[in-house]
Amino acid sequence: MKIAIYPGSFDPITNGHLDILKRGAKIFDKVVIAIADNMRKESYFSVEKRLELIEGCTTDLDNVEIDRFKGLLVDYAKKVKASVIIRGLRQVSDFEYEFQMALMNRQLNDNIDTIFLMPHEKYTYLSSSVVREITKLNGDISRFVPENVLKELRNKYGSK
Ligand code: PNS
């Protein structure tokens, strides 16, 4: 059984993340989408809420599990018996950070490989931070996030 993890902040999950998750789920037997909760950066939604939001928009994906993790990603990967880390690459500017992270993770555990998947072009410009900013400024984010995330953002911030 080939298991991959798809780690990230997912604050909140966007249609771009879902696109990558679905592509990964077609390739691997099981994909664990894992929220990092030891991040230095302050989060917009709590880990519990982010978990709930991911749960709400992935019910149709049979081979996807949702989890959270603390500590090193490679240690978590080993714990859940994943041999692959999935990361999304939207544009060249993502590459430098992703390259460093992938190679550092390889230094930490050479048995775990990182693979990069490209989301559909329509999500090239999309990120959780852009969604958050547009929400705060009362813009329309309905095309960028799943229905349940949209509802939550609207409840919290009264966006369109
Ligand atoms: O969605 P993000 O914020 O780009 O995800 C980054 C994440 C969570 C994958 C990365 O920060 C991470 O792996 N954190 C766990 C701690 C860790 O293993 N750090 C060493 C990475 S080289």
Give a structural overview.
By secondary structure, the chain is α/β, with parallel strands linked by helices. It has a single domain (3-124), classed as HUPs (Rossmann fold, 3-Layer(aba) Sandwich). The protein is built from 6 helices and 5 strands. It is globular, with a radius of gyration of 15 Å. 30% of the residues are buried. Residues 7-9, 36, 72-73, 101, 104-105 line the site of 4'-phosphopantetheine (PNS).
Topology, element by element:
Blueprint (H helix, E strand, L loop, with lengths): L2 E6 L6 H13 L2 E7 L10 H11 L6 E6 L3 H7 L4 E5 L3 H17 L4 E5 L10 H9 L10 H11 L3
Parallel strand pairs: 1-2, 1-4, 2-3, 4-5
This protein binds 4'-phosphopantetheine (PNS).
The site of 4'-phosphopantetheine (PNS) has 9 residues, from strand 1 and helix 4.
Summarize it:
With 160 residues, the protein is α/β, with parallel strands linked by helices. 42% of the residues lie in helices and 18% in strands. It contains six helices and five strands.
- Helix fraction? 40-55%
Numbering strands along the chain, what is their spatial order in the largest sheet? 3-2-1-4-5
CATH homologous superfamily identity? HUPs
Q: Spans with pLDDT under 50 lasting ≥5 residues?
A: none
CATH-derived architecture: 3-Layer(aba) Sandwich
- The CATH topology corresponds to Rossmann fold
Overall average pLDDT = 95
